[in-house]
Amino acid sequence: MPTITINNRELEFTEGQTILEVAIDHDIEIPYYCWHPGLSVVAQCRICLAEVWQPNPRNDNKLEPLPKLVPTCQTPASEGMVIHSDSPKAVKNQRSVMELLLINHPVDCPVCDQAGECYLQDYAYRYGRAESRFEEEKIKQPKKDLGGDILLYSDRCIMCTRCVRFTKEVTGTSELMIAGRGAHNEIDVFPGNALDNPLAGNVVDLCPVGALLDKDFLFQQRVWFLTSTPSIDGITASGDNIFVQHNDGAVHRIKPRTNMDVNTWWISDEIRHGWSHIHTETRPLMPHLRGELEAPQADAAEAWQDARDAGLAGLEQGGHIAVMISPMLSCEDAWHLATMARAIDPNAVLALGPVPVDGDDQTFPGGYTIRAEKAPNARGVRRVLAHFGDVIEAPAFEQMLSSDDTIKGVIITGNYPSEWVTPHLTAAIGDERFVLLMDTMATALFERADVFMPAATWVEKAGTFENADNRLQSFEGAIESVQYCKSEAQIALDLQADVEGCTAPVFNDAATRQAMADAGLTAMRDDVHHPIVTQDELESDMDLVQLSVGGQQTSGGCGSGGCGCSGD
Questions:
Q1: Which pLDDT belongs to residue 563?
Q2: Where does residue 507 rank: exposed (0-12), middle (13-18), buried (19+ CB within 10 A)?
Q3: What's the total number of domains in the chain?
Q4: 283, 440 Cβ separation under 8 angstroms
């Protein structure tokens, strides 16, 4: 392979790569603002300029310097090149660019949502001057509501134009433009337009500074307190790779996780903001028996045992049982529910719950597709149910309930983010059957259910989803189940243990996948894609220093002095 040398390191590269891409591939830092792998290259910010020497074929291929610094984001790498991004000329340019960018930038890092993950902060520390030479009054730019969920703090903008290029090249909606000239340049929407396309939230992720902000996240959390857990879209059939960012048991935002085989660098606003039901005040958090008052939280363990006893007694009262397994559940949930149902009734009917569809798939010019199917795992649940027999779809299930009097007990699972129970389903269930409901919301079946068991959402458990392209992807639980909710898999394990008279095991997604593979579903072992992330994607690079009082550490600390501190 051809090689180039960057900062005295000889590196291999692929034909067509730029100098900056080669540096990024080999963990060599060259500062940049405007470049992004999913957008066109404009070489606008100028901080990535470097000193380049290359062989001159007209002079026996001797290394000769190019007459001026060149943008590494735009310059193709070629055999034998020698690049210096740390030479005196390159460093002087970096300092000059940083000085220019900071001339009118407000010093509001303490109140800026971007603090802790801001390129401007990082580069000001690494490449900027210790103090400003600018003594004139700063130009003030206005704050703007761009529409939808986006705010623009114009005085923080460094004119990298990532957001403008995104709306032109990826969404094709072109709401954003550059208005004004010179130092009075600013980003704005075209008159009469609002930034409200279905992918608009990605401009917040693209912004390298704190200029574009999410209204829902504004002033909610400091980013260095957030933990990022790799997960999968639990709202639609896209299977988009995401990070669930959370703190103290609460989700605060969802960000895209790069996967070039699925969602590249983007997610839809539907996915970004589709988690609000997790912490809604109306979410039922305790088991509930029909006609009885909800047990106090202090009696949670007793309430769960009463629900298990009542549920099992109702399902075993005679006749067949039927289970409707929601497409919002994981493959592991479906497996344990089906196994539990067949342990109670070897002839139990297993059906797939309603699969919501909203219009048609929408594909944008940049290649991203929003799926019309609003369920993350319809194909995965079908795959699991097919192992137990024929797959019954929701309409056929409703007809069966309406006509088959031998079905005396029904297990219904939901976990949809909003009301999903239709009058047809309620009528098909009727008033005489025993109903065990596992759900996250107080839907129309909540009062009808003889036993209600509160279920965990996808961010509160681990499992596997199969997306619209039949790609199996595992995800991790981000937060503990809210209060007294449990995953459907754990509820099924508890009920099955009661049937068999043993102690219920604790649900483990990896062990379940192996058990499924041993039973013949080998794809659950061989074809599942697991998240691959680096440590710096999971944790902030912000150093948290613990203080001491009177020579005693307040809550741990290094205690060794190896970090450069005194050890106390």
A1: 39
A2: buried
A3: 3
A4: yes
